[in-house]
Amino acid sequence: MPEASHRPYTPVPLTAVRIDGGFWGERLRVNRQHTLPAVFRQLRDTGRLAALRQTWRPGDAPVPHVFWDSDVAKSVEALAYAVVTDGDPTQRRMLDDVARLIVAAQQPDGYLNSHYTPVEPHKRFTNLRDKHELYCAGHLMEAAVAHHAATGETFFLHAMRRYADLIGATFGRAAGQRRGYCGHEEIELALVKLAHATDEPRYLRLAEYFVDERGRQPHYFDLEARARGEDPAAFWARTYAYNQSHVPVREQAEVVGHAVRAMYLYSAVADLADEFEDPTLLETSDRLWHNLTSRRMYITGGTGPSRHNEGFTTDYDLPDETAYAETCATIALINWNQRMLQFGGESRFADILERGLYNGFLSGVSLAGNTFYYENPLSSAGDHHHVPWFQCPCCPPNVARTIAS
Fold first, then answer.
1. I want to staple 134 with a disulfide (CB 3.0 to 4.6 A). Which of 187, 243, 295, 396 is the partner?
2. pLDDT at position 279 over 90
3. pTM over 0.90
4. Integer distance in angstroms from the first to the last C-alpha of the chain?
């Protein structure tokens, strides 16, 4: 385990670095000139941007989906990073235009979701287990932080503060609050970023609450399901290990469940270990890191062999041809190891970071930059190809923001 639970190292600001040539210079150029335009074209063509205008009415198609806002948010974050490093005025105008479109969709109480507001306004925050509301909120917060860093503008950041304040008033352990947390982790790490951008410590405390409440009894997802009139035992995944809420986070010893969710959670655990100088959280992160890297990770840095749960099964179950190894999971692995590296500069974290960056992640985008992999098997019969988009297209904008960063 790293010697201290406070990080002596901090990442170099994006504004202090310029990469013009070499391997990554070419990937940055392709990302800026081809990947980002391809992603935003898909956002327009699939209705994701239009959904933010809140004009959907019953009978219209397509119906805004519960995770659409996350796709837009990751794309905005990617565009913000590109604007920082390249300063293209056309991309800057697009960045502000989409940011204003997002902010215009915010409700008077701070709520912001392009599905629930027009489609199911009476069901807000009633199914955190499955419906990605807080996950989308987290990605919007990350986008707002990136937009502020790129432009100096505060309108998007202030909007996400209002949303974070609504979430903080809704969830917690005080009287009248719900003791909930998201089924798809991400907001936890986003709140840390928001706290840094706004110098507001209550967002750190909210992130800590979301991590520490996870898996406690009585289980919130059971209570929430019963309130919806559902039997908790009917949960399709059959176990809360799927979303890492089977036991409290500090008691977890094995990397389990959906791989992307797990890696985002562990990134937040590492962040909070530093923020609160909490050795037990750092020990948790290190323990899970050892379990993953010694028993449950591909040689490429890919994680999660199973299509069934987009995640983990048992120790050493790492088949080649049927490997799922979702691109987003490797991106989250990279983020986790980048955070762990800051505690002591240990090479083991840099090794995994680079292994994932050059292998399990970079295979997720074609050299042309406009087609992608969701799954990254280690072998195929020649029938696995990059494609322009997916029904669940979390990976393309995630690729764009990772390269741009």
1. 187
2. yes
3. yes
4. 28
- Give the alpha-carbon dihedral of 186, 392, 81, 110, to 10 degrees: -50
- Residue 14: per-residue pLDDT: 86
178, with CB counted inside 10 A (0-12, 13-18, 19+), is middle
Instruction: Provide the 10 A C-beta neighbour count for residue 131.
Output: 22
Annotated active-site positions, please?
A: 310, 394
pLDDT one-digit tens code per residue, 250-277 = 999 999 999 999 999 999 999 999 999 9
* Residues β-bridged to residue 365: 372
Q: What local confidence, expressed as pLDDT, does residue 211 receive? A: 98
Burial of 394 (0-12, 13-18, 19+ CB in 10 A): buried
Please state, in angstroms and rounded to a whole number, the distance separating the CA atoms of residues 400 and 34. 10
What is the number of other CB atoms lying within 10 angstroms of the CB of residue 100?
15
Residue pair 32/404 in contact (Cβ under 8 Å)? The answer is yes
pLDDT tens for each residue of 361-379 = 999 999 999 999 999 999 9
Write the secondary structure of 250-275 as one string of H (helix), E (strand) and C (coil).
Answer: HHCCCCCCEHHHHHHHHHHHHHHHHH
What are phi and psi for residue 60, nearest 5 degrees? -75, 150
- Amino acid letter, 302: G
* Cα 393 to Cα 149: distance, rounded to the nearest angstrom: 26
Separation CA 241–CA 46 (nearest Å): 33
